[in-house]
Specification:
Elements: E1 4-6, H1 12-20, E2 25-27, E3 34-38, H2 42-52, E4 61-63, H3 79-88, E5 93-98, E6 113-117, H4 122-131, E7 135-136, H5 151-158, E8 164-166, E9 178-181, E10 188-191, H6 197-201, E11 208-209, H7 211-214, E12 237-242, H8 245-261, E13 266-270, E14 283-285, H9 292-308, E15 313-317, H10 325-335, E16 340-342
Parallel strand pairs: 1-8, 2-8, 4-6, 5-9, 10-11, 12-15, 12-16, 13-14, 13-15
Antiparallel strand pairs: 2-3, 3-7, 4-7, 5-6, 9-10
Helix pairs in contact: 1-4, 9-10
The chain binds threonylcarbamoyladenylate and magnesium ion (MG).
Amino acid sequence: MHTLMIDDQEKLYMAADILRAGGLVAVPTETVYGLCANALDEHAVSNIYKAKGRPSDNPLIIHIADLEMLQPLVAHIPDSASLLMEHFWPGPLTLIFESTSLVPLSVRGGLSTVAIRFPSHPTMQDLIRMTGLPLAAPSANTSGKPSPTNAKRVFEDLNGKIDAIVDGGLSTVGVESTIVDLTSGTPTILRPGGITQDMLLEVLDTIIMDPALLSVDATTKPKAPGMKYTHYAPNAEVMIYKGDDEKVVEAINAALLQDKAHNIYSGVLCDDETKSLFHSDFIISLGSRHTPCEIAMHLFEALRTFDDLKVQKVYALSFSTEGVGSAIMNRLEKSAGHHIIYV
Ligand code: TXA
Ligand code: MG
């Protein structure tokens, strides 16, 4: 299959035509690039799973660009959902609803619920409106790899496997949407993201984190099926160092020295405040620790850059879990397979 690159917004109608005909198109959103198909077309949806190599029990998020598109997809809209929609849509927030039978079971991974998001990215919104269709879209990466925040990374993973890629520049949030479940009593965050728990608490009286997100062992089953899989993993082995700055820098430098002696290429993932303190040829700073949004925006691209550089081991700082930091550390810990070194 030839993958068409669409880098001119004037040609967005081509992407709309492909989607209406049951094809697959990667599209920028404010969080990460999504791999879109008509959510109501079972065959098109099955091709998403094939192109990504995604397990079929991992459900997809449906994207809408108009509140009227919600009604036919969901059985019931709780008051808490209306409040969240009013405050955070369009934006990086996904809500779980009881589904209607209109939504194919394959989109929902066989569940009775459905995940819906109203993205703020103008290109994604335009495309949904042009097609008039709800679009199912997981992140546009090969399953297990870091999510793509630009068109080049989508091309690397999916060239020849999908019909087209719309190039709309960088995704600025950089981590996937926050997922909130409103179908089971207390509102629960199933995946941390750009909309933080504190932001949600300004609107709702209570909201808890899915206990599986907080447990260090893997015994508690996460409620978002996708959260149980290995994720965001570059080819390099990632290790996270936790402790005070001085000790972390010392421990990482010692490890770097050892690697050099064994001809192992190793790199450091850090912030602007510490980047000059490491002895390595492969140092990537995600930005200042005082601007966590910048750190979130650069995280996935940095993990992929280490692969470009053929780095075998990555030593990462532990970033603050304040605000969007809980999403940053959730993704980083997964990319490290929860390999954390306390110093
Ligand atoms: O920011 C985003 O959400 C991006 C962009 C493209 O919109 N999309 C994205 O999709 O991250 P994906 O497929 O990579 O992640 C979807 C997550 C998975 O962890 C999946 O298990 C969960 O949403 N999910 C989907 N439907 C669900 C449901 N009914 N109940 C619980 N979790 C659900
Ligand atoms: Mg994903």
